[in-house]
Design a protein that fits this description.
alpha+beta; 4 domains; 6-stranded mixed beta sheet; 5-stranded mixed beta sheet; 23 strands
């Protein structure tokens, strides 16, 4: 058989087999373009060897043998050599030895397996993010959606702003791609030439998930020190964007804050932000996230650094309390005190109370509806540093005397699902307070599933415990896999008076109505139905 010189693109099999081909290492595919080889033999190995270890090893060994005495083959106009060089450059960028640069579209296709669904990390309003496999390294490749691609001048302006950003609390930018090609399309029976435009941005890959994945209330989840360090890290990253690079993020939210293995926050997805020359009104289509978007931007399109401050305030509330609602600082402190006392062998330091209180005070100011009333990011950092240094002179001693609350254990229960059978579990309420009060409680759920709680209300006397049995009545069919989580609410409040009178109380919902001077606690209890794996696969 006659041997000729071929490039990677010449050796590609039909589209139906393209996924199998890219299971091979990119280096080996590029090597094919530099060898004089038997195209039929290589195609057979590519098509049938990728899924078979023996054939794969045969191909690897054959290529290594050929590398020693290969001859230069003619370069193809599709730029195989450029791809090889581009990959080498990208590896040096990842290592930090080279600055971010323009990357070839074909290279990004190769390392994402042509934007395969199996490498998809997530998607948002502006595009889809994929894993890019670079040997034993991984990068994140964001492919902007066609409906949000922007003109070249604006795209390169945004790229320049990204290249200026270097901070430990901001995801590391690696490179970009702006690619346009023509394609013949049939339109109303006529053949027309259409331009297909691709815009891509590449970043370091953070594999520990986003802040959205770990937000919980005060009684569970991350400890206070970790949450506080995340808050400070977000503030430092935002300061770098605002003050050192004049960039407004405009979509700051928990899913746009990634966490590395040391729980260090890294802000992402500001590639489509606008340079902050001054406050202005946007006339183009606005991408907003309800719940985090500042009202002046959501209603009128007016943007400024104070728009990001509003979003920051919502995020701080969620980190401290698990909720976006305006917090009651004493109630939040009581809940943190309850957790600290339960988990620590010593009295929680006064500093923790000050940090919680200061974070909530700042969050309330950050979410003021009037932008000019919101603090500057540098002011926020200074106030937090003042608390940490001990120079904050506010008296927090009274926080140590905060009322206690009823204990609920566990806070999450997993029930192994069995069809046509009742399933039961129990929780324990405890009154370990030392101030001489009984607690009234009521447990309820909004779930549509047939649950029964026994008892569903009652009194927990001082120094005692109460066990509650939660029973799920018989189910005939398995629930959908995304509907296996139910929330219960355990309401409690102190009962004033002597023990005998409290035990005779008629406990109704009115007992738990908020009134001045009266503290009512709500503890969320989660019940998760564990569906057997075999049942899920059968379904």
């Amino acid at each position: 058989m006659m041997c000729e010189a071929y490039t990677v693109m010449d050796l590609l099999p039909p589209v139906a087999h393209i996924e199998r081909v890219w299971l091979l290492d990119l280096d080996l595919l590029i090597t094919l373009s530099l060898l004089t080889i038997d195209a039929i033999e290589v195609l057979e190995l590519l098509l049938f060897g990728c899924a078979d270890t023996g054939y794969r090893k045969k191909l690897f060994g054959w290529l290594r043998k050929q590398r020693g005495d290969r001859m230069e083959a003619p370069r193809h106009h599709l730029g195989t050599e450029d791809i090889y060089i581009g990959r080498d450059v990208l590896e040096r960028i990842v290592d930090g030895s080279e600055k971010p640069s323009n990357l070839k579209f074909l290279l990004l296709q190769l390392i994402t397996k042509f934007f395969s669904d199996e490498l998809k990390l997530g998607h948002g309003g502006c595009g889809v993010v994929y894993k890019g496999i670079l040997g034993n390294r991984i990068i994140a490749v964001k492919r902007l959606s066609s409906s949000h691609t922007i003109e070249d001048r604006m795209f390169y302006q945004e790229v320049q702003s990204l290249m200026r950003v270097k901070h430990q609390n901001i995801v590391h930018f690696l490179g970009y791609c702006s690619h346009t090609e023509e394609q013949a399309l049939e339109l109303s029976g006529n053949l027309v030439m259409a331009q297909l435009r691709e815009r891509l941005l590449c970043f370091e890959y953070i594999n520990n998930g986003s802040l959205r994945d770990i937000l919980t209330d005060e009684l569970r989840g991350l400890d206070w020190h970790t949450r506080y360090q995340i808050i400070k890290g977000i503030c430092e990253g935002l300061h770098h964007l605002h003050k050192e690079n004049h960039i407004i993020h405009m979509d700051l939210k928990p899913s746009n804050i990634l966490l590395d293995d040391q729980m260090v926050p890294k802000i992402i997805d500001f590639g489509l932000s606008r340079l902050d020359d001054k406050s202005r009104t946007m006339t183009v289509e606005r991408l907003i996230t309800l719940g985090y978007c500042a009202p002046e931007y959501q209603d009128h399109g007016k943007m400024s650094p104070k728009s990001d401050i509003y979003s920051l305030g919502i995020i701080v509330k969620e980190l401290v309390t698990g909720s976006k609602e305006k917090p009651s600082i004493p109630k939040v402190l009581r809940r943190w005190k309850h957790r600290w006392n339960k988990s620590a062998n010593r009295t929680p330091p006064l500093l923790w109370y000050k940090q919680v209180s200061k974070c909530l005070e700042l969050a309330i100011r950050c979410t003021d509806t009037k932008p000019t009333n919101r603090p500057d990011i540098w002011d926020i950092i200074c106030e937090l540093n003042k608390v940490d240094s001990g120079s904050d002179v506010s008296d927090a001693a009274e926080w140590l005397e905060l009322e206690g609350m009823i204990g609920v254990e566990p806070l999450e229960i997993h029930l192994p699902l069995q069809l046509n059978k009742k399933i039961s579990c129990s929780i324990e309420l405890s009154n370990n307070e030392t101030n001489g009060y009984d607690f009234a409680f009521m447990i309820s759920t909004t779930s549509l599933r047939p649950y029964c709680m026994d008892p569903d209300r009652g009194i927990v006397p001082l120094g005692s415990k109460c066990s509650i049995t939660i029973t799920l009545q018989e189910l005939e069919r398995e629930p959908p896999h995304d509907y296996c989580r139910d929330e219960f609410s355990v309401q409690s409040t102190r009962v004033y008076g002597n023990h005998a009178s409290s035990m005779d109380m008629d406990i109704t919902q009115d007992v738990f109505n908020e009134e001045p001077g009266k503290v009512v606690d709500n503890v969320d209890l989660i019940v998760v139905l564990d569906v057997p794996p075999s049942s899920t696969s059968d379904q």
